[in-house]
Amino acid sequence: MFDLIVVGAGLSGLQAAYTAQQAGLRTVVVEARDRVGGKIWSVPLASGRGYADLGGAWINLTLQPRVGAYVRRFGLKTETQRLKGRAIMQESANERFEFPFGVTPDFTPEEKKNLEFIRDHIQVESLQPGPPRVADDNVTLDQYVRNLGALPKVAKMVNLWAQVMHGLEASEYSAAWFIDYCRRNRGLLAIRADDASGGQHLRFQDGAQSLANKIAKLVGPSNIHLSHPVTSVNDYNTHVTVTTTTGKTFTGRKAIISIPSTMYRELNINPKLPPRVVEVTNATVLGDYNKAIVCYDRPWWRSEGFNGYFASYAGPVILGRDTSVEASRHYSLTCFVNGKPGREWSKLRPHERRAVVLKQLAKVFNAAPDGEVYKPIEFFDQIWQHEAFSRGALAPVTALGHYTGFADVYGKPVGNLHFVGTEYSTEWKGYMEGALCSGEVGASEVVRSLEKYQRANL
Ligand SMILES: Cc1cc2nc3c(=O)[nH]c(=O)nc-3n(C[C@H](O)[C@H](O)[C@H](O)COP(=O)(O)OP(=O)(O)OC[C@H]3O[C@@H](n4cnc5c(N)ncnc54)[C@H](O)[C@@H]3O)c2cc1C
């Protein structure tokens, strides 16, 4: 019998396993996919020019201490986000303007003042300690900023933040969830920043999945069972069994479930989770958080003075960044196709999705019809809603009123089952750092509860 069975080998599951092993627990990890990493997935380019990060990519070594420690320990090489050059805002299908990166785009003085007021209000709120407010949980983010007096253009900008940050529209989730997310992640400005003060400062030269692969090595490949989707989890009070679609059954004293809460309903958990846990987790949603990564022979946008960053109200790409890695001559624009526009785009066939993205890039960069923009050397797209073992991204979001209403049960242990995942993290929730943090916390919970159990039986 194992001391601990971990379901899922994303970063939270791997970290939970490693922390538990370090405390001396005999641990096994059961993963559905044929790889570790979950929502971090780096695919090698056919040209040999590095990797396309189809999931998580950006990190900050100082603000995110767990990621920082691993990067140093494993000697992983990083690339600083390139910011030099002009950015672009696409206001509608045929209107775009360029602006110096880092300044508020071309708003009227009244709109600029209004945007700064709303942004500063949320920033101040997101630096306050304490739990989210019930009143803010019953109102959508969109309504919240309109109640603060957001002008239409500013409400549109807030919607863009929601799409970029969570793959949802601002009218689809609560202000409390949004503000608390910022609170756990060092404030709105740190989340939005692409320089050393924020979450998008660096990327992994050899792909983000290298982090998961290295942690998996620490856990020990023989302790990780890949390609074993879990189909049922039984808590018998004295022990737990975890059964896979491949017919294997693992027996342990405790289990950690590290899959997104939106997917608990797909695991046959017996006895059933308490009704309030079922109610809150059944109502969580995952956003439409998709990437199209367009790789070129050379970074043509730089020679025209652009830094590759653009945002768009027109969509379907709502934000793009230069994700090149000089050392491997990898030159790419990563396009986020999120929220409602992403939902529509994901229904298209692959060649249509590619055509739509290239056409939009041409408009955004004001490129000629025969321009280099239309001549990528490789093109990747990834729709996380289509992934059977993710069903969307970035992290599950609770329904209106649920974040505060179910805080006493959401993510809390039930019998011998413990729950981890980036969604539960108190630091950098939604990020790789958050997944590591939650895995660490969940494993410590298990270690403590097993110690108690042992003492009770002495
Ligand atoms: C497009 C995109 C961009 C992102 N950008 C960033 C970024 O720039 N920076 C950043 O820090 N983070 C980013 N993230 C978020 C980051 O990737 C996640 O927060 C983190 O990887 C989540 O880890 P997790 O362990 O909580 O969940 P997951 O990675 O979802 O892990 C869950 C694991 O459980 C497995 N599983 C599911 N069902 C079963 C089953 N039935 N049986 C067994 N196993 C199962 C899955 O295969 C998976 O391996 C991004 C994510 C996406 C998708």
How many helices in DSSP terms?
Answer: 15
Could you tell me the radius of gyration in angstroms? Answer: 22 Å
Main β sheet profile: 8 strands, mixed
Strand content: 15-25%
Number of strands: 22
- The structure class reads alpha/beta
Assembly level: single chain
Averaging pLDDT over every residue, what do you get?
A: 95
Note poorly predicted spans.
Answer: none
Bound molecules: flavin-adenine dinucleotide
End-to-end gap: 20 Å
Helix content: 25-40%
Shape: globular
Keywords: FAD, Flavoprotein, Oxidoreductase
Protein name: Amine oxidase
EC number: 1.4.3.-
InterPro entries: Amino_oxidase, FAD/NAD-bd_sf, Flavin_amine_oxidase, Flavin_MAO
Offer a quick outline of the entry.
The chain has helices spanning 11-22, 65-74, 109-126, 134-137, 141-147, 152-166, 175-184, 188-192, 209-219, 275-282, 300-303, 339-345, 350-364, 402-405, 432-456; strands spanning 2-7, 27-30, 42-44, 51-53, 58-59, 78-80, 86-92, 95-100, 202-204, 224-225, 230-235, 240-244, 249-257, 268-270, 285-287, 291-296, 306-312, 319-322, 331-336, 378-382, 393-397, 417-419. The chain is an alpha/beta fold and 458 residues long. The protein is globular.
Structure description:
This protein is α/β, with parallel strands linked by helices and 458 residues long. Helix content is 34%, strand content 22%. Strands 1, 2, 10, 11, 12, 13, 14 and 22 form an eight-stranded mixed sheet that branches. A hairpin with a 4-residue loop joins strand 12 and strand 13. Helix 1 runs parallel beside helix 15 and helix 3 packs across helix 7. The structure holds flavin-adenine dinucleotide (FAD). Flavin-adenine dinucleotide binds next to helix 1, strand 5, strand 21 and helix 15.
